[in-house]
Amino acid sequence: MPSITSNAPPTQKLVQKPKNAAINAALVKTMSDAPKKRKQTLPSIPKAARCGHCDTCLNPQWKKACLTVREQLLNQQQGLGDEGPPRIAAKNPARNGGGDVEEYYNTLREALKPLLLPNGGVVPSSASQLVTLMDGVARLKARAMFVIVIDQSSDDVRLVLQRGRGLELLHQWVEDAREVGKLDMLRNLLDVLDKFAIDVDALRRVPLGKTVARLKKHENDEISRKATALVAKWKAVVPGGDGVAGGTKRARCVMVFFWGG
Questions:
Q1: pLDDT in tens, 151-173
Q2: For tag attachment on the chain, is the N or C end more exposed, with fewer CB atoms within 10 Å?
Q3: 83 Cβ contact partners less than 8 Å away, ≥ 6 residues apart
Q4: What is the DSSP letter of 188?
Q5: What is the pLDDT of residues 202-234, one digit of tens each?
Q6: Cβ count within 10 A of residue 200
């Protein structure tokens, strides 16, 4: 019997084509349905530039960007100005102890410029931004810049620093300057602290009294004199803080709590 030939492709190929088409269609659908990675429209916010006061800064476990700085970055993108903390470089060499230090100082000066008045002090409305820039600064030269700025600023600016993290940072700077024996920095810090309207709440929250009281016995006469005068001034705002109330248990507790004994 003569063989019957056919031009039709094998049955396997006829079935394979729709199968491949179905697989391809499924792949295309899966890729289109997959969640797309969110495009980052704002630069990363370094830890040193966070405000330290918003909800996300107070709850680091959330691992969210600083709301204050994020809003400032959005304003900059929209041409609304506010050349505040976001201008700090993402890598802070003054904090990490490496990198181009001079470049960091230049960046820091540029970040400070929009906050300053002609006399070198800070615009009162920018006091919180000043604290943001202060946070994380480790080098003496950079800290000295801020001490000068605070010294030239108004009482309103210093009050913002006192009620926020600014006073805590100044206290840490006093401790650091004492430990490494930076006498000029210590003198300047004591002078600028003398301009603060320190009250009982500030002395309860920040152990400035104990730290400065230790400087009363400093080998440098000028630092010793400034520390003694500053402690005497602060004792006047603490009820029973001068120990004149007698040798009562409460008076001794007050002396130990605020002045270390």
A1: 999 999 999 999 999 999 999 99
A2: N
A3: 76, 111, 113, 114
A4: H
A5: 999 999 999 999 999 999 999 999 999 999 999
A6: 13
183, 198 Cβ separation under 8 angstroms: no
Nearest to 146 by CA among 106, 183, 108: 108
Please compute the mean of the pLDDT values over residues 109-121 and round it to a whole number: 90
* Tokens 């916010």 belong to residue: 45
SS3 94: helix
Six token digits for residue 79:
């041409």
**pLDDT tens-place string over residues 86-113:** 444 434 434 444 456 778 788 888 888 8
* CA gap 79, 2 in Å, rounded: 86
Q: Which residues contact 136 (CB under 8 A, 6 or more apart)?
A: 47, 48, 92, 94, 95
**pTM of the predicted model as reported, rounded to 2 decimal places:** 0.61
Which residue, 246, 174, 184, is CA-closest to 207? 174
Helices and strands, number each (H, E), in the chain: 14, 0
- What is the rounded distance in angstroms from the CA atom of residue 247 to the CA atom of residue 104? 53
Q: Is the dihedral angle over the CA atoms 103, 107, 110, 116 positive or is it negative?
A: negative
